Amino acid sequence: MLPNILADARYALRQLRKAPGFTLVSILTLALGIGATTSIFSIINGVILRPLPYGEPDRIVRVLEIVPQYGRFSVAPANFFDWREQNTVFEHIAAYTPGSDTMIGIDGPERIPMASVSWDMFETLGVAPAMGRGFHPEEDAPNQNAVVVLSHGMWQRRFGGDPSILGRSLTVSGTPMTVIGVMPAGFFFPSRESEFWRPIGLASAGATRGGHYLGVIARLEPGVSREQADAEMKTIAQRLAVQYPKNSRDESAEVIGMQELIVGPVRPMLLTLMAAVAVVILIACANVANLLLVRASVREKEMAIRTALGAGRARLVVQMLIESLVLASASGLLGILLAWASIAPIQSLGVDSIPRVLDISLDRTVLGFALLLSMATGLLFGLAPAWHAGRGSVGATLKEGGRTSASFGGRWMRNGLLVAEVALSLVLLVGASLLLRSFAKVSGVDPGFQSEGVLAFRVALPETSYPDGPKQISFFDGLLERLRNAPGIQSAALTQTVPMRGSYTLSFTIRGRAPGQPGTDPSANYRIVSPEYFRALSIAVIRGRAITEYDRETSMKVAVVDDAFARKFFPGKEAIGQGIDIGNGTDGFYEIVGVVGEVRHGDLETAGDPTMYVPFKQDVFSSVWVLAKTSGEAGRYAEVVRQTVREIDPALPAYSVMPLDEIVDGTVAQRRFSMLLLLLFALLALFLAAVGLYGVVSYTVSQRTQEIGVRMAIGAQRGDVLRMVLGDGMKLAAIGVVIGAGAALALAGYIASLLFGVTPLDPASYLVTAGVLLAVAAIACYVPARRAMSVDPLLALRQE
Average pLDDT for residues 228-233, to the nearest whole number? Predict the structure, then answer.
């Protein structure tokens, strides 16, 4: 058996070398399909299938609070301590808050991403430090948490992998910290950017139950399912809601798998891309199968002679399948190279929108998939020509005197494959068109502010140097004044969170209205802003006034609300002059003095939440975003703002410096990622379908040369021949378009969740893509049709 297979493989290589054009086209066609499919599978493997880099990651879960006004929410510290004490389903339960701290480097102060974590975070994740140790319980207490654990990357980059790093003192935001450990390479939490960890330093005594800001993860006890843990946590939450009705009324809890929470939002998009690339590989297989069918027709006499010499049908079928597998193997190797080359562009395109995108690689799983895919495609596209090779009549073929003829079965099979290619191409084109139109709709949404020419950056004041509000206000006043006087900067303002970076939601009560039940107070997005905020972002003042320099810590508390706030909470009334208590009875009422336009704070696809703005001097934040409205390209002023901050305090960095345009653009990054990839696959499918149509029509013309010569000899004009050949090809394309449109309509609902402002049955998408596909088909048919027009009747009849 093995000698026969090796002999057939050598024979297949000789045959492929004799037809270099056919071999090259087949390998390139199939390699494109295999490469695209392997690329998308590498994304799915890295993002969805590969376990998180923790010990027994299937036992790690996130625990979230469910708050009536907000849905899934962060956890209040007091609730966390109660959960830790009362649960029986978790081996460990730990809390964390992501953030950043300032460290002094060679080039000056640098803001470094970090996370504050409870003492047993590393035990919860099941990962021990590679050097040193983790945190002790006594170090996780207020004023006792002056120790840090470094990431492997930070240890290498900032300290050159110094083995004596343990015990070294670092100054973090003005506070001395001792290095006690270094985590293993490849470990990250809660994000890949985190460079070091410090104890969170919470105390159960006096912990707040109203402020929700902790992330909580847990490790399930052996044998405990996620469903069991979820049920117990809901029971505990119900008990706390009864015990503390003022803060926890109607609140619940939810336990969800860590990996599911991370990748769940992108799973539908990635599976849609996988389905799309599966269509591409099917089109590639159909294309190569058609080429092999044509080649099998040309080789009919060869097969007949081999049969006459004793080769059985099975022997011929095996021979053809081995040729297909040889082609598939070569295509697979080239496809793997294409997939490898695509990884860096995919990571660059998806780094801001796809979680774990940096985990994508051609590992053993992906390479094994590529190998299996190559063999499967070899069998798939080889079945049709193998079946065709073994079914011909020896006598009839030899009586043809060496001429080849297209049997009805072979012609039907080729035409059927071509129709399938066109239909599948239309399905992809419709999907790409829908996503493209959705992207255009999203990009055209008015966010409610002008981001062009605005440079955003962050400044965080350490408590050691700026312990109270007056010192913080003095710093920010000086910073804004210097920025306004800097060349090229027209205005400057600050806020605690820029638009498109999420909402900061607070509840409030309205003056003159009876308070509702605990936990049912109205809530809205909350922003502290400086006077020039609305001017810097070109947010229109609809009624009343904006915040001014006279709204200070010693003046009457005031607020500006947006139009959505006014409509929702004061329907049919004037909002100006109303009072809202944002401090839940501790700060007194803020009088509404103005109404401004609505702003989308989360993303372009979601309408903005009702928003209230208060003067930053009446609610001082130590960490803020600063917005500088520039007279030119915002990115050119990055060094200006960095230098301005250094001039005031050399120990402070300006960080996260970026044009506001980039922040807005980042909200559509995931949509752009899926749209561009699907569009690429659709164009690839269109190209393959055009090549397939060209090949079939060209072969048909070559088989009908004598017929065309006879027609022209008895009076047919060149235009008649053109219409005949073009019409035959376009009939196949039209059938494919009709079938494809029906399939696209049937499958449209599956991408509904990826669309915005466009329905899955959008007529324009179907009509435009059908028109494009038919136009490309006409071009593909026209080239061989022109060749048919040039047939010389005398030469064609002499061949007969």
Answer: 96
